[in-house]
Amino acid sequence: MNEPKPEPSLIQQRHELGRWRLAALIMMIGWGAMAALRVVFFDVADFVDWGMLGLSAALALYGVKLWFDYRRKVRTFEAEHGPDAGKQP
Question: What is the mean pLDDT of residues 13-20?
Answer without folding.
Answer: 93
